[in-house]
User: Fold this.
Amino acid sequence: MAHKYPGTFISLEGPDGAGKTTQVRLLAAKLDAAAIPYVLTRDPGGTPLGKQIRHILLKPGHPVAPMTELLLYQADRAQNLAEVILPGLQAGKLVICDRYVDSSLAYQGYGRDLDLPLIQQLNAMSTGGLKPELTLLFDIESEKAMGRKHQGGHDRMENEDLSFHRKVREGYLTLAKEEPTRWRTIDASKALHTVQEEMCKIIGDHMAAKKLVFI
Ligand code: TYD
Assistant:
């Protein structure tokens, strides 16, 4: 169902500490300056309901069973799709989603060892099968990523140990290898401006191939 809408759907993925959020902020500033119609959203927390789910999911200090975790991420995603992503695509906008279905595969599948086909099924249910045209993987070694993470206050997922984060990273690399036409991998350990340039080039090339204006 990739081309049913006039908009462009891009997702950003990567392990915690890859610097994805900083990169997306820089990109948003450029899109604003160039007056490109876009929607920037995120999983979890792209909607008012999603913000509440995000709080439940990321607050440390209470147990969350892996299946509960998976279903809460899916609930957030279904709401984000209905409220933000689909309307944006239908309006012909560039929709950029900071994390999407692949986060569930990487974190709950590879990280928590939940059944991958089950997650794929749930991903399809919560999104009506809508996949991004392009997915950028901000790849970084887990040791480096953990070293980068903000000193003050870690959320429930960031608190997981190094072996969990390694499994997530390996999961992402496997996913990218399995679907090379959708994924582009960026070495997120490089300097901030280099990563930003690569990100803009990849998105720019994709937009140009669709004869759409970009920054
Ligand atoms: P967030 O602060 O958005 O992470 P980042 O800034 O690194 O993108 O927190 C989202 C956390 O939730 C992150 O640790 C990844 C995790 N997550 C899942 O485990 N499964 C999912 O389906 C999604 C969307 C996120």
In short: The helical segments are 20-33, 48-58, 66-90, 101-111, 116-127, 142-148, 162-178, 192-209. The pocket of thymidine-5'-diphosphate is lined by residues 16, 20-21, 42-44, 58, 73, 98-99, 103-104, 107-108, 157 (CB under 6 Å). Residues 66-90 form the longest helix (25 residues).
